[in-house]
């Protein structure tokens, strides 16, 4: 089975570039150049150097001993939360800013939900001295206020998306509209493995550093570069795709992708896309999305702003359809409890997004010798308010 | 030959087309608006079917789509309403909207149904050429529906030629790379762009849209193209009281007779 992308940008039935003509030149420029640029030795050297000295990579693969005891297997945490800016999002932002520079772009736009991708983008723009505009849903700006301040402090302009449901999908719409109006000088740094081809492939490649490192670290720690399980949370799906990437062809490795069930899959307040969605077109690619019978996009819900997205990346849709990965869902309550447990058993306060992946551990049946890697995609600092309110600290 | 081809063969210039969103501002006035536009002298129509995430649209058409969806507009209802279209409207009519509602309806069924009620063409901004050619072109041809492609100042000559080859009624020329509802800006570069298109001697006529809002921009556009399309400016009119009565005056203000 081939899990990669074909020349037309498709993963099986999913992907492509469903974009209006106004975006065609931008996307076509990227399509023609992205592989040559990211495979160039000079680019690789600069990318690797920044990941090492600026981001702090490689991120540790930590053997979580108390978790291992609790769940009866060898549980490893891939510590993306220790990256500069606090999540895996910086890997992609560094890659794309270097690419934008080589394309001669003078202005960067981005969308953000929880604000992690916005912060990562504002950070790399500050680093490179490039103008940065971040679109963020008006509602998300209120519930993730500290990240709004961080972006502003980093010199970015944060523009509220006031259309539609005023959350991530609308921020994405606004960023696309900006790009339509600024077709020559602007690069759009999409934050997840979504959007028109080549974005899903490009973002997956930049995030694949997560699984590349994990393989090496596992070999050192366990004697084998292959674990039995890989687990990660999925909104659009960039940390999961980075975590899965170099294991996709190792069919013995079970891949578990954890979606946000919100208040319950059937509660009407959920973001469990593979459970509630159908095939269709969203933000430039054919994928699985939550929609009405009439094809209108449904507003998802999750306590976690980073998982609150009505679709998944097209490669995830493919992995789901061909059953290469298992897609499960975790409720708000389960995630919040897992966030607390991780804090108190391992001294790590995870992002609520990440807590969804951790919560799934409760539902797994491991053998004693199983090696299990959970992607700790981000740290929980940004979520303290939500945790405090939930637990009444 | 459908109504669009007949129109372009019989009338040479100053063609005026109007876009409006079905279901806005009221759910049941789609055909009333279409009829009033024909009576006011409009040459052809674009009826928009609303979508929750219209990325190519500015605030005016976004708003009209939101209200239309709140009013309960969808493709099934629109096709029901349009069943009587050809009893009341004789000019060419196109449907315009985004690809996902079409995909959910079923593109083959969509094309059949559209042809059945006398629709002449479809404009789907986010349906790319590759997917159109490989997946859907057959359904359009079988049902004698024109698919209208957009061209912007950034579209290359090669691509314009390819679009010309796939088109069989007209090419929708954007005045600039923008979302709907902007202002037509005529700069030296834009003049070059129009001249470049003209010099290509395309098989299909060009109609300019996006940013055409008044007599001045209409005249400017029709200097370079066979006609022009007004969208957001008309949708704004629909947001006012007694909009049906104001249609003749609005059309006169764009293209005085």
Summary, kept brief:
The complex is a heterodimer of chains A (393) and B (257). With 393 residues, chain A is an alpha/beta fold.
Structural topology:
The complex is a heterodimer of chains A (393) and B (257).
Chain A: E1 10-11, E2 14-15, H1 24-39, H2 41-55, E3 61-63, H3 65-71, E4 74-79, H4 89-102, E5 107-112, H5 116-128, E6 131-137, H6 138-143, H7 145-153, E7 157-161, H8 168-181, E8 186-189, H9 199-207, H10 209-222, E9 229-233, H11 238-244, E10 254-262, H12 273-276, E11 278-282, E12 285-289, H13 314-321, E13 325-331, H14 332-346, H15 352-359, E14 371-376, H16 384-391
Parallel strand pairs in A: 4-14, 5-6, 5-8, 6-7, 9-10, 9-14, 10-13
Antiparallel strand pairs in A: 1-2, 3-4, 11-12
Chain B: H1 3-10, E1 15-21, H2 30-39, E2 44-48, H3 59-70, H4 75-81, H5 85-88, E3 93-96, H6 99-105, H7 107-116, E4 121-123, H8 129-142, E5 146-148, E6 150-151, H9 157-166, E7 171-174, H10 188-199, E8 206-209, H11 215-224, E9 227-230, H12 232-238, H13 243-254
Parallel strand pairs in B: 1-2, 1-9, 2-3, 3-4, 4-5, 6-7, 7-8, 8-9
Helix pairs in contact in B: 2-13, 7-8
């Amino acid at each position: 089975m081939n899990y990669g992308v074909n020349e037309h940008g498709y993963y099986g039935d999913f992907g492509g570039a469903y974009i209006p003509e106004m975006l065609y030149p931008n996307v076509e420029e990227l399509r023609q150049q992205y592989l040559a640029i990211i495979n160039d030795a000079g680019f690789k050297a600069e990318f690797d150097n920044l990941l090492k000295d600026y981001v702090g990579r490689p991120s540790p693969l930590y053997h979580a001993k108390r978790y291992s005891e609790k769940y009866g297997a060898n549980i490893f945490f891939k510590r993306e939360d220790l990256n500069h800016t606090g999540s895996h999002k910086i890997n992609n932002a560094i890659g794309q800013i270097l690419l934008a520079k080589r394309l001669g772009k003078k202005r960067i736009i981005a969308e953000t939900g929880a604000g992690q991708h916005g912060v990562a983008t504002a950070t790399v723009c500050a680093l490179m001295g490039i103008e940065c505009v971040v679109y963020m849903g008006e509602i998300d700006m209120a519930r993730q206020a500290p990240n709004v301040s961080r972006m502003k402090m980093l010199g970015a302009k944060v523009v509220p998306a006031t259309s539609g449901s005023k959350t991530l999908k609308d921020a994405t719409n606004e960023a696309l509209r900006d790009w339509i109006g600024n077709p020559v000088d602007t690069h759009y740094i999409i934050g997840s493995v979504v959007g028109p081809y080549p974005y899903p492939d490009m973002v997956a490649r930049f995030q694949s550093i997560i699984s590349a490192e994990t393989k090496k670290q596992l070999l050192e720690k366990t004697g084998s570069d292959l674990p039995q399980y890989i687990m990660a949370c999925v909104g659009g799906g960039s940390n999961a795709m980075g975590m899965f990437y170099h294991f996709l062809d190792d069919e013995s490795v079970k891949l578990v992708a954890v979606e946000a069930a919100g208040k319950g899959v059937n509660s009407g307040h959920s973001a469990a896309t593979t459970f509630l969605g159908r095939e269709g077109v969203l933000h430039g690619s054919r994928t699985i999305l939550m929609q009405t019978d009439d094809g209108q996009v449904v507003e998802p819900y999750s306590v976690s702003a980073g998982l609150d997205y009505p679709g998944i990346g097209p490669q995830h849709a493919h992995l789901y359809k061909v059953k290469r990965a298992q897609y499960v869902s975790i409720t708000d309550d389960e995630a919040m409890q897992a966030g607390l447990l991780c804090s108190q058993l391992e001294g790590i306060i995870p992002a609520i997004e990440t807590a969804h992946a951790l919560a799934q551990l409760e539902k797994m049946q491991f053998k004693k010798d199983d090696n299990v890697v959970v992607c700790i995609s981000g740290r929980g600092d940004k979520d303290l308010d939500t945790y405090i309110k939930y637990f009444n600290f | 030959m459908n109504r669009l081809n007949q129109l372009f063969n019989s009338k040479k210039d100053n063609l005026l087309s109007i876009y409006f969103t079905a279901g806005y501002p009221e759910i049941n006035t789609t055909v009333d608006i279409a009829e009033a536009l024909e009576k006011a002298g409009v040459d052809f129509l674009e009826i928009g079917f609303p979508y929750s995430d219209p990325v190519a649209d500015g605030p005016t058409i976004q708003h009209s789509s939101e209200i239309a969806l709140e009013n309960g507009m969808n493709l099934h209802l629109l096709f029901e309403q349009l069943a009587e279209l050809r009893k009341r409207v004789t000019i060419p009519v196109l449907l315009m909207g985004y690809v996902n509602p079409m995909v959910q309806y079923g593109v083959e069924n969509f094309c059949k149904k559209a042809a059945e009620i006398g629709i002449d063409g479809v404009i789907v901004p986010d349906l790319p050429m590759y997917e159109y050619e490989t997946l859907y072109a057959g359904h359009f041809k079988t049902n004698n529906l024109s698919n209208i492609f957009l061209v912007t100042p950034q579209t290359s000559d090669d691509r314009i030629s390819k679009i010309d080859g796939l088109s069989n009624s007209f090419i929708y020329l954007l005045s600039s790379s923008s979302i709907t509802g902007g202002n037509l800006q005529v700069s030296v570069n834009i003049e070059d762009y129009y001249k470049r298109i003209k010099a290509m001697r395309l098989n299909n006529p060009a109609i300019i849209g996006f940013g055409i809002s008044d007599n001045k921009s209409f005249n400017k556009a029709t200097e370079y193209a066979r006609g022009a399309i007004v969208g957001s400016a008309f949708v704004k009119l629909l947001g006012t009281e007694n909009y049906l009565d104001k249609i003749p005056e609005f059309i006169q203000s764009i293209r005085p007779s």
